[in-house]
């Protein structure tokens, strides 16, 4: 969105917070990205939240003089509160995950996705597996695996000092950074820590949708919570191996983890469970070690610790990562959007000409 914000206004609507006596929209413009973030605040225990959100968004659109916007959906659930009085010039469905397979997903999400697919002009998927699952459902589906801020995460390679909590931990350090939820194989994490008590497992990220009490508690597992994006390369710089201990279940069947290229940009060897969009292409290219059982995971980690990043391996990884910049992702998406808008304009012009000819 920060790339789009260089060329047009971008309003990013967050999910509502239920903390207000009277409903209102909070807006703040991010100085780094120029994206305007809009957060609805609603009264708790409301019964007509979608109607309230529709009214708030309609007022906002009038105040900001938003007409015929490009409407970008990250979730089909947003259809429930998007005002039908706003007529988009283009609808994009950016399908980042198979949300219907997540724990606690509402039953209506599949019906709403069918509706969203009907009204969408373009469908982008967050990985190849999702593309394969959606391509028969729409005539304009395009795969966009996770991009990476190469310069940001590449700064980990030149950071020399131990940062924050890393400084108090002995080596080797094995790290994970991301949301900690039902997609993580907690039994795998626990077993690796149990069998290798001399290894330090550094786990960064918020715990969501699972009970914090379910996290394995061992002296060599360190749950550090959420950290700032700006600080992640400094944490990565203090690790010896990056881990992706994902469970193999419905919620991970179609994921394409953003952290894969981030870890590689940071110069870290990576060990992952066999997530399809990690095996293809990273595992097949020899850029990430793939392991499933705790024994395999430990062996792959030992190999990573011994092998590190040889120069040839790093060169191959860096060459592959060149195609994954967010700039290149944006350029491709923007081209598809411009192409669709141009075709729509030509279609309207042709229809107008046909009407004039019929009148004559």
The CATH topology of the largest domain comes to Rossmann fold
Shape estimate: globular
Arithmetic mean of pLDDT: 92
Uncertain residue segments: none
Q: What spatial order of strands do you see in the largest sheet?
A: 10-9-8-11-12-13
Q: Report the order of strands and helices.
A: EEEHEEHEHEHEHEEHEHEHEHHH
Q: How would you sum up the major sheet? A: 6 strands, parallel
Spatial extent as radius of gyration: 23 Å
State which percent range the strand residues make up.
15-25%
Can you count the helices?
11
Q: Helix coverage percent of residues?
A: 25-40%
The CATH superfamily of the largest domain turns out to be Glycogen Phosphorylase B
So, CATH architecture of the largest domain? 3-Layer(aba) Sandwich
By CATH reckoning, the class of the largest domain would read Alpha Beta
Question: How many β-strands, per DSSP?
Answer: 13
Quaternary state of the chains: single chain
Task: Explain this structure.
The protein is of the alpha/beta class. The protein folds into two domains: 144 residues, Glycogen Phosphorylase B (Rossmann fold); 164 residues, Rossmann fold (3-Layer(aba) Sandwich), CATH 3.40.50. The chain is 36% helix and 16% strand. Helix 5 crosses helix 9. The model has no long low-confidence stretch (mean pLDDT 92).
SSE layout and pairing:
Blueprint: E1 11-13, E2 24-29, E3 36-41, H1 49-63, E4 70-73, E5 90-95, H2 109-119, E6 122-125, H3 128-134, E7 141-143, H4 150-154, E8 173-177, H5 186-195, E9 200-204, E10 221-225, H6 232-237, E11 241-244, H7 259-265, E12 270-272, H8 276-283, E13 289-290, H9 294-307, H10 311-321, H11 326-359
Parallel strand pairs: 1-3, 4-5, 5-6, 6-7, 8-9, 8-11, 9-10, 11-12, 12-13
Antiparallel strand pairs: 2-3
Helix pairs in contact: 5-9
């Amino acid at each position: 969105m920060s790339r789009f914000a260089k060329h047009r206004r971008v309003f990013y609507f967050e999910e509502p917070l239920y903390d207000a006596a009277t409903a209102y929209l909070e807006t703040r413009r991010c100085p780094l990205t120029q994206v305007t973030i809009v957060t609805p605040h609603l009264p708790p225990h409301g019964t007509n939240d979608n109607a309230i959100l529709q009214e708030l968004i309609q007022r906002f659109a009038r105040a900001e003089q938003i007409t015929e916007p490009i409407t970008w959906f990250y979730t089909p659930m947003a259809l429930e509160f998007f005002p039908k009085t706003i007529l988009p010039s283009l609808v994009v469905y950016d399908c980042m995950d198979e949300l219907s397979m997540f724990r606690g997903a509402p039953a209506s999400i599949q019906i709403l996705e069918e509706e969203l697919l009907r009204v969408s002009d373009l469908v982008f998927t967050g990985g190849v597996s999702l593309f394969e699952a959606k391509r028969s459902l729409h005539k304009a589906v395009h795969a966009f695996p996770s991009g990476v801020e190469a310069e940001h995460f590449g700064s980990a390679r030149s950071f020399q000092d131990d940062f924050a909590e890393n400084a108090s931990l002995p080596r080797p350090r094995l790290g994970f950074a991301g949301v900690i939820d039902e997609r993580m194989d907690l039994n795998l994490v626990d077993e690796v820590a149990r069998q290798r008590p001399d290894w330090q497992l550094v786990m960064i990220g918020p715990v969501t949708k699972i009970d914090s009490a379910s996290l394995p508690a061992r002296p060599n597992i360190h749950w550090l919570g959420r950290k700032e994006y700006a600080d992640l390369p400094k944490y990565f710089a203090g690790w010896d191996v990056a881990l992706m201990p994902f469970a193999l279940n419905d919620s991970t069947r179609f994921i394409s983890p953003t952290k894969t290229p981030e870890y590689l940009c940071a110069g870290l060897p990576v060990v992952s469970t066999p997530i399809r969009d990690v095996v293809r292409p990273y595992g097949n290219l020899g850029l990430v070690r793939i392991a499933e059982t705790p024994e395999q995971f430990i062996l792959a980690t030992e190999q990573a610790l011994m092998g590190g990043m040889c120069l040839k391996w790093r060169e191959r990884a860096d060459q592959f990562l060149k195609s994954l910049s967010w700039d290149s992702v944006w350029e491709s998406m923007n081209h598809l959007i411009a192409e669709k808008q141009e075709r729509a304009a030509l279609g309207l012009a042709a229809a107008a000409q046909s009407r004039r000819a019929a009148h004559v």
